[in-house]
Write a structure and sequence with these properties.
Length: 226
């Protein structure tokens, strides 16, 4: 018979490049942390020097203002929140605190849902892509080349691109979820499972309970020779 732990039976503890899910979650959290830190620095520099990132209405092809003070403050607040969430996930995976990983996992689910809605929108309203491209500024790179592509082929290319992104995001979600389950299982009681050859599972009590119960048993009576 083979003795295994219950947290290693129903999911994988390895991810990309054959590294552990805990290592993969730490690397993923650091990567997101770096990206959001760079975005925060760009937003702060734009807030300090608005003329450097000022675009006129003619350049944007519309009558709206690009990144006003209200939108800038909202973007900075979102960046700070993302930095906090990524730092919590990295710390939780490093120190093996499963609860600290939940906010980052919820963000991944929310991001996956938004990308899925974009894919559904492209599939249901294919003409919206052409309308969006027409609203781009006249000097937008490759705008004329994109407009000359067949609309059906353009929709298929965009759907294929979004599908690849969704598959990659789903893989990252599974990596973080497996890391959460791994840490949660390691922090739970160390109950071992005996798996016999006929698929019969026998739970063993914790070692402390077994030793305490064994110690409370009365010793056998002394042996008396006849």
């Amino acid at each position: 018979m083979k003795m295994v732990a219950p947290w290693t039976r129903f999911y994988s503890n390895s991810c990309c490049l054959c590294c552990h899910v805990r290592t993969g979650t730490i690397l993923l959290g650091v990567w997101y942390l770096i990206i959001n830190a760079v975005v925060l620095l760009i937003l702060l520099s734009a807030l300090a020097d608005p003329d450097q990132y000022h675009f006129s209405s003619s350049e944007l092809g519309g009558d709206f203002e690009f990144m006003d003070d209200a939108n800038m403050c909202i973007a900075i607040a979102i960046s700070l929140l993302m930095i906090l969430i990524c730092a919590m996930a990295t710390y939780g995976a490093y120190k093996q605190h499963a609860a600290w990983i939940i906010p980052f996992f919820c963000y991944q689910i929310f991001d996956f849902a938004l990308n899925t809605l974009v894919a559904v929108t492209v599939l249901v309203y294919p003409n919206s892509i052409q309308e969006y491209i027409r609203q781009l500024p006249p000097d937008f790179p490759y705008k004329d080349d994109i407009m000359s592509v067949n609309p059906t082929c353009l929709v298929l290319i965009i759907l294929l691109f979004i599908s690849i992104i969704l598959a990659f995001k789903g893989y990252l979600i599974s990596c973080v979820w497996n890391c959460y389950r791994y840490i949660n299982g390691r922090n739970s009681s160390d109950v071992l499972v005996y798996v016999t050859s006929n698929d019969t599972t026998v739970l063993l009590p914790p070692y402390d309970d077994a030793t305490v119960n064994g110690a409370t048993k009365e010793p056998p009576p002394p042996y008396v020779s006849a």
